[in-house]
Amino acid sequence: VSSHPLADVRDQLARRADVPLSAADSLREGQIVTVGGLVTGVKPFVTRKGETMAFAELDDTTGSIEVVVFAKTLAAVRQILVPDAVVMVKGRADRKNEGEVKLVALEVTAFEATANFGVVRLRLDARETRAAIIQELKSLIGEFPGDAPVVLEVQTTEGPKTLRFGPEFKVRPDGDFFAEAKALLGDAALIA
User: Fold this and answer.
1) Rounded to 5 degrees, what are φ and ψ at 114?
2) Helix-helix angle 175-185:133-143, to 10 degrees
3) pLDDT tens digits for 8-52?
4) pTM to 2 decimals?
């Protein structure tokens, strides 16, 4: 019995995606999000204009979504949008048909797994952040104890500064931690 093809990269996918596919039903019409997953099928379709577009099924172990890839985008991504490929899709939510959510692809990129996180790198803009954020981040790190050191890149009024948390603040860099960090610090907080 083999494991799910995404088992080894599930946490990295979750870290780079805005939402898990299980939450696709909560997307608003026109909302732009980045999701990642395994391409489980691609159905080409020829339009009335004679252009080839495709409907791709994307699965991330939490759920799946149909991705609509129009001709212009398909021409650019045909080599990577193939069954069993792991991809990241930036797309716009489309709720027009019977309330079912589809994603209209704006960009499709091959997913590149990293061997190990090593150091968890986060960023924040201190010019626009409340003062208590560092204490909140320390608490969050405490909730996910692990082996990865944490480095925080901070934009200040005096320019960029890099802060390394002490050895007692090491984290387990999994999808749950990154989801919480993104919720606390914002989308731009995670450095891939």
Assistant:
1) -105, 145
2) 170
3) 677 777 778 888 999 989 999 999 999 999 999 999 999 999 999
4) 0.60
